[in-house]
Amino acid sequence: MSKPRTANPWLSKAAVNGALVLAVVYMLFPLVWLLTAATKDAGGLLAGNAFSFDGFDLGGNLSRLAEYNDGIYFHWYANSLLYAGFGALACSLVSVAAGYAFHVYDFRGKEQLFGVVLLGVLVPTTALALPMYLLASEVGVVNTYWAVLIPVLVNPFGVYLSRVFCAGYIPDEALEAARIDGAGELRVFWSIGLRMVMPGFVTVFLFQFTAIWNNFFLPLVMLSDQKLYPLSLGLYAWNSNAHAEPDFYPLVVTGSLLAVVPLVVAFVSLQRHWKAGLTAGSVK
Amino acid sequence: MKARTRAAAILLTPFFVLFTAVMVVPIGYAVWLSLFTEKQSGLGFGGTETVFTGLDNYTAALGDRAFREGFGVLLGYCLLYIPLLLVGALGLALLLDSALARARRFFQLALFLPHAVPGIIAALIWVYLYTPQLSPVVQAMEAGGIGFDFFSPEGALPSVVNIALWEWLGYNMVIFYAALQAIDRSVLEAATVDGAGAWRIAFSIKVPLVKASLAMVGLFTVIGSLQLFTEPLILNKGTGSAVTSTWTPNMYAYTAAFDRNDYGLAAAASVLLALTAALLSFAVTRLTGRKGKRA
Question: What Pfam families does the record point to (chain B) (predicted)?
Fold first, then answer.
């Protein structure tokens, strides 16, 4: 059935790599635009010529960013680091503990319970934000750090990933050896299991950090005090002002650029880990 | 054995306590709220009182044209976005997996990078790139004789779909690529020996072997699409775009709660959205015929 291969191999190679390069251009040019736009003042930004360095004023933009409203931008930055850093750390611990228990122990109803976790993966979380807001106001934590921190500690997919990683990284013999040495079960988890599954832990951490850093709907619903805003919400508020006052445009653009930097650095330096996460997800 | 059961309980408790608090309880609370309505009490001086109104909020939401149109928008969005995403991501993964591709690590990283950009910032960047006065893209398109208004009624859906594609294409490409890489190479070699060309191997062997990944990505994309909110919200704010403040069901629920302070209606809208997600998840899982698998 197959046709004889008459195509020029050099031509096919150029076509394949050319198509990939086109896709990369599509992915990267908005980021390149962000980079050049962040160097312009409001006038230069509105004048077009986006991909040039005309009206170069990155220093001016950065100092205006730092000064505006007593440096609220870097306050948001610190908040984002706190929400994402602490949230992802605690979430990964909770997830890995649960995933480890699902992998190592046998108990009645285990697979049914794991089924509940998998169902949780399918819940559309934004549909929960509103009832969560009303619950939080009943409890009196609305407009506090906790309102944004507690909901992000739960990630059913993280539990699923952790179970897969524990199955891959922790050989039963290692746990058995520790038990024979007289270590208690929790001790075995803490000093053997957790250590061995550390690459998986980093993966879960990375994905949860990204999810929290990028989270917008939950803080939008929960927070009204600007001092508690994460970056996403702060930039959104500034952007809403920009339509009336174009001076906000350089603030929004420069602020967006700085907000993207930590995740880009993380993804470039931790390639092994996000690939591992997506691979574990794909062979489900 | 008892020590092990106790350890399992201790390790599982934090997750399930939190899971109950931020998923199970809010679902129950949303259902509860949706059955009540705040009404002006007595003479109108005593503030409001909350009255049980049964399914009234549901009939109100379903009876509201804006809410129904939101589902229409979602349908159009899914029909345009999901095929483009699946075909695009799988196509790129097949290209990268072919023997001809170079610099695979670089391509994977570069295509994945938009995932590092928060949705709100992705939307902001693209809205700038859609704005005629600011955008090199619109200017280039006009110079090339293509006039397209991203903020017009016809432009609304493509504008949002493009932002979503930009955010998710590379992410899903990596998932497909990982699945392709997991294919036993000897199967592919056997096909080559039998005389199958690169196209035939891609479509008759590789694609059927990554069906499970396609189904999973399809399922997560459907659930994500139903929650569409951030990108259209940015388009809605001050761009003069045809995207309204109740464009998607999620935006409808948000405006019902925070602009109109009608929590009952907002809860009913959220419950209806979650129900739709549940039904679609069930349908997608059934259609793709996967058995309940475990790790």
Answer: BPD_transp_1 (PF00528)
Domain count, chain B: 1
Q: What is the pTM of this model?
A: 0.89
Task: Answer whether A98 sits within 8 Å of B5, measured CB to CB.
Answer: no
Q: Do B111 and A27 touch (CB under 8 A)?
A: yes
Rounded-to-integer distance, Cα A25 and Cα A62, Å: 27
**Whether the Cβ atoms of residue A118 and residue A156 lie closer than 8 Å to each other:** yes
Most confidently predicted of A201-215, B32-46, B199-213: A201-215
**Across A66-80, A108-122, B77-91, B224-238, which has the greatest mean pLDDT?**
B77-91
Check whether B294 has a pLDDT greater than 50: no
Distance CA A265, CA B90 (A): 26
Q: Mean pLDDT across the stretch B43-68?
A: 82
Give domain status of residue B46, yes or no. no
Percentage of residues of chain A with pLDDT beyond 90: 49
Give yes or no for A86 touching B (CB within 8 A).
no
* Domain annotation for chain A: domains and CATH numbers: 58-282 (1.10.3720.10)
B292: in domain: no
Contacts with B8 from chain A: Cβ below 8 Å: 101, 104-105, 107
Decide: residue B66, CB within 10 A, 0-12 exposed, 13-18 middle, 19+ buried.
Answer: middle
Q: Does B145 touch chain A (CB under 8 A)?
A: no
Taking only residues 36 to 65 of chain A, the set having a beta carbon closer than 8 angstroms to any beta carbon of chain B reads 37, 45-46, 48-51
- Closest chain B C-alpha to A20 CA, distance in angstroms: 7
Q: Which domain holds residue B138?
A: 68-243+273-287
Average pLDDT of the segment spanning B270-275: 92
Closest CB to A151: pick one of B22, B115, B234. Answer: B22
Among A167, A217, A275, select the one facing B174 at the smallest CB separation.
Answer: A275
Note whether residue B109 is domain-resident: yes
Cβ–Cβ gap B234/A236 under 8 Å: yes
Report yes or no: B130 at the A interface, CB cutoff 8 Å. Answer: no
- Helix, strand, coil abundance in chain B, percent, nearest 5: 70, 5, 25
Helix/strand/coil (H, E, C) string of B16-51?
HHHHHHHHHHHHHHHHHHCCEEEEECCCCCCCEEEE
Under a CB-based contact definition with an 8 Å cutoff, are residues B248 and B72 in contact? no
Per-residue pLDDT tens over the stretch B197-231: 888 888 888 988 888 889 889 999 999 999 999 99
Check residue A238 and report its DSSP letter: H
Helix (H) or strand (E) holding B13: helix B2-19
Number of residues that this document lists for chain A: 284
Question: For helices B65-97 and B211-226, what crossing angle results, to 10°?
Answer: 150
Across the interface, whether the CB atoms of A17 and B122 are under 8 A apart is answered: no
Q: Where are the alpha helices (DSSP H) in chain A?
A: 9-37, 42-46, 58-104, 110-121, 126-139, 145-149, 156-169, 172-180, 185-188, 194-196, 198-214, 217-222, 231-242, 248-269, 271-282
CATH number of the domain that residue B222 is part of: 1.10.3720.10
